[in-house]
Each structure stands twice: as structure tokens, then as C-alpha cells.
Amino acid sequence: MKRNQSYYQERNLKNLDRIDELLGDLPYFCEDFLRGVETRTSVLTRLNYCYDLRIFFDFLSKRKLRGKAVREITLEDLGQVTDTDVEIFLSYLSNYRFGEKRLSCDERAKARKLSTVRSLFKYFFNKGLIDVNNTAKVPTPKLHEKEIVRLEKDEVSDLLDTAECGAGLSHHAAGYHDKTKIRDTAILTLFLGTGIRISELVGLNDESIDFSNNSFVVTRKGGNQALLYFSEEVGDALAAYLAQKENDPKVPDVSPAPLFLSLQYKRITVRAVENLVKKYAKIVTPLKKITPHKLRSTYGTALYRETGDIYVVADVLGHKDVNTTRKHYAAITEERRKSVANRVKLHGGEDE
User: 218: helix, coil or strand?
Assistant: First the structure.
């Protein structure tokens, strides 16, 4: 399967250009590190490494190396970093300044940055270019379980109804609704009916869809492709949108043809999809912060409820590790706790 490649290739090229830009602000040896991990990491992972390392070396410049410019930091300097320095760095991340911005990291962001720093030190330690890897002595910050946020069945129905009819939209948003309602309904239905990731949805092309067996091809994390299947309900929403596109003379004749288009007739962006989900969700459930990922969790929970098979859910969602999927079980457990809440009566029992 070799579909959808142009979007992902274009995205990777943009990210590679950004990595080159960022390397200009990092110590010289960071380029060696990124080259060394290239075969076992994605372009996006290496880009995130660059963002994390910018903050780490900015910290070293300010706090340990007495104002030494980041570009002038050497491997000898790296070898002098102690485990205490790394612990101070993690504390620093709670409230720090980078450039003109005041920023802070939660426990997950701290854990990710520590993982990046560990990877850097491990690489040069294994190469024999630093004598000790003190980052290995620093424990990962404790990660607390996130509350599972998802839509209930009636909220799913209300969300789709809102996308179709536009009730509750602001005057400005209502002005565009007639042009986007079929597309938006198809996008929401695809999220809720298949659980795909936002990057997978944005990367779909017209040719990705096969109505002969209700299937479509997605490009998973890491570039692997998978064939997924959709229900008749999802198929109807996709067919309605494709029919609208076919009858629109402004749709550009390009190959491959992006499936979901913006009002400017370009491939819809991740940010635009995030905004449209937020736009409809805040009408239906204003107290829940619903994102495309929460729609994915809604699907995962519903699929587990129907199948009871955590491995099926992991396979469909594209999780490499089934433990990533077990969080959907927490939502079912919550339902069970709720269902027994009224079983024990404190009043109204038989008299002694």
C-alpha cells in the first residue's frame, strides 16, 4: 500500500527544514546525536528532541556555565553535568523563561524532556565521548493517571446533530455553516466511528476510501500503513461529502486529491480540525474539554464496551503496546462503580 505518501513526505520535509534551523541554535555535537538516532526515530521525534534540547542547553548556559553561549557548549561541558544539575533542571521547568516567554511544564512534559536529555547523554556515553552518564541516576517524575474524558452516547448524537443543523453556533460561525456542515459531519463521524488519529485523518486522500468493502488506508505513527474498516453510517457521511466535492467546480484537480479541504480548497490543517471539533463540542458539552483525541477515546471506550477485547481495541487504534489501551478499561470501570452506587441503602431497611 503506497497511498497518502505525498502529504507525509511533504510534512517530513518541512520538519527536516525546521530541524536544520534549530540546529543553528544548538551546540555542534547535537547534529551528530540526531544523525546517530535517525534510523530508529521518526522525523517528528527528532524535531521534538531539538525543541527540548534548546531549553536544556539554555538552562545550562544560564545556571551552570555562567553565561557561556549555547553554541559554544562542548562535550567536555556535557561531561561535567551532574545528576543534581539534572534534578535542578526538572525543578526549573516548573517556572522558567525562554526568550520573551514565561513557561511551565507539567509532569508529563518534564518526563519527556528528561527522556530527551537521557537519550543525548546515553548516545555520547556509549560512543565513549563522555566518561559518565549521570542522567541515568535521575528518576522519571511520577505520572498521575489522567481523568478519562469522553462523550456519552447522548452527547455523541447531539454533537453530530449540531454539526448537521448548526444550532447554537455564533452569528459569525453560522455564516459559514452551510458551506462546511457536510464536511464537518463527515469528519466528526469518521473520528467517532473509527477512532483514527487527527494526523491520519488530515492525511487521507480521495483514493484512500474504498466503498466496495467500506475500508480505507491510513498512515500510522512511524509511517506504517494500515487498512481499516468503517460502518455504513460512516460510509454514508463520507459519500455525502465526496458527492458535494464532485459537484463543486472549485475543487482543484490534483493527484493525489486531499480528502478533506479547507474553505480555501487546500488540504485541511490539523489546527483547523482541532478548532471545528472545539466549536461544536463546546455547544454540546461546555464543561468537557473535547478534542479530536477525546473523540478517539470515545470510540475506544465504545469498542471495548461492545467487544470486551482489549487486544481488538489496541489493534484498531494502532497502539503498539496494549497497556496504552488499558486506559479505556478505566472508563468502563467507572461506569461499574457508578452503577452500584445505590445498591447499599442507609435508610428504609427492615426494622430490627
Answer: strand
Distance CA 323, CA 344 (A): 33
Judge whether 223 and 42 are in contact, CB under 8 Å.
yes
Helix (H, G, I), strand (E, B) or coil at 271: helix
Backbone angles phi, psi at 244, to 5 degrees: -65, -45
pTM for this structure? 0.79
Which residue matches cell numbers 482489549?
A: 310
Q: Which fold has domain 153-339?
A: hpI Integrase; Chain A (1.10.443)
Give the residue extent of every domain in the chain.
Answer: 5-137, 153-339
- Going by C-alpha positions, the residue among 19, 14, 25, 15 that lies closest to residue 98 is 25
The CA radius of gyration of the chain, in Å to the nearest whole number, is: 24
Give me the count of residues in the chain.
Answer: 352
Q: Is the dihedral of CA 276, 278, 279, 281 positive or negative?
A: positive
Residues 260-305 pLDDT 10s: 999 999 999 999 999 999 999 999 999 999 999 999 989 988 888 8
Pair 83, 134: CB distance under 8 Å = yes
CA 61 to chain centre: 31
In the numeric block, the cell 542522567 is attached to 135
Q: What is the pLDDT of residues 295-343, one digit of tens each?
A: 998 998 888 888 878 888 888 888 877 777 776 565 565 665 666 666 6
Sequence-distant (≥ 6) Cβ neighbours of residue 261 within 8 angstroms: 183, 245, 251, 267, 268
Q: What is the DSSP string of 285-312?
A: -TTS---HHHHHHHHHHHHHHHH--HHH
Please give the sequence-ordered ranges of beta strands (E in DSSP) within the chain, or none if there are none: 96-98, 101-103, 209-210, 215-219, 225-229
Kindly list the distances between the CA atom of residue 3 and the CA atoms of 57, 192, 205, 256, in Å, as whole numbers in the listed order: 40, 23, 8, 8
> Cα dihedral sign for 7, 269, 197, 210?
negative
